[in-house]
Amino acid sequence: MRLDRPVVFGNWKMNGLRAEGLALAGTLAERAVRLTGTLGIFPPFTLIHAVAQRVKETAILVGGQDCHERASGAYTGCVSAPMLADAGAKAVILGHSERRHGLGESDALVRAKLRAARAAGLLVVLCIGETEAEYLAGARSARLAAQIDGSLPEGIGPEGLVVAYEPVWAIGTGRTPTAEEIRATHREIRAMLAKRIVGGESVPLLYGGSVKPDNAAEIMALSDVDGVLVGGASLDARSFWSIYQAGGGA
């Protein structure tokens, strides 16, 4: 799957009932008849099929926010990668900090989920990021390297993979690293990926963490930043579209 810059993905998290979710998707669909970049939305499981149907005449990519590591089985309350694909999803977010830290997901579990998602033909948006304590202790690089090494299956290629750098302390807080910190960290991540997988330097890199219309242009102008993963601002069509345009998308 080719991802043209800017790559702007919106993670709706646990937000949106049918009426409001379809209204948001519909507004975006009206603006996104022809895209010059890559625009994606990741609604909750309950809306994936309806949203995918609503935007099917556009180039908007629809994805899920997680998947189970098994394709099927006695796993009450879980959703598998094939189920996501069957509902109309083309991608899935894995390893988000709200699952790593909030639900205790390990690198090994993320790796198993990533393997399952790729087997189902889904584009994987792999999230990595350090906590505030790690950031203040100067352990950011070590944490990111460990997450990359632990979350990527052996033998994986760059196809169908996106990596999103989301410092845990910046998600939903209104705080962001400096532009220089973002640029340097993305450059470091690209080098880590090049060492970890063949062709890893070509993996698109996104920044996530309190991305808004007023900081999106500066962030997406940085070298080694191919786009952004947006949280709260993706729930407002005008703000989300403004972020997309800030990166040069139309």
Secondary structure layout:
Blueprint: E1 7-11, H1 18-31, E2 38-42, H2 48-54, E3 61-64, H3 81-87, E4 91-94, H4 97-100, H5 107-119, E5 123-128, H6 132-136, H7 140-151, E6 161-165, H8 179-196, E7 205-208, H9 213-220, E8 227-230, H10 237-246
Parallel strand pairs: 1-2, 1-8, 2-3, 3-4, 4-5, 5-6, 6-7, 7-8
Helix pairs in contact: 5-7, 7-8, 9-10
Q: Can you characterise this structure?
A:
This protein has ten helices and eight strands. α5 crosses α7, α7 packs parallel to α8 and α9 (213-220) runs parallel beside α10 (237-246). The protein is globular and about 45 Å long. The protein has 250 residues and is an alpha/beta fold. Strands 1-2-3-4-5-6-7-8 form an eight-stranded parallel beta barrel, surrounded by seven helices.
Features:
8 strands; TIM Barrel; 39% helix; 15% strand
Gist?
The chain has 250 residues and is an alpha/beta fold. The protein has helices spanning 18-31, 48-54, 81-87, 97-100, 107-119, 132-136, 140-151, 179-196, 213-220, 237-246, and strands at residues 7-11, 38-42, 61-64, 91-94, 123-128, 161-165, 205-208, 227-230. The protein has a single domain, classed as Alpha-Beta Barrel (TIM Barrel).
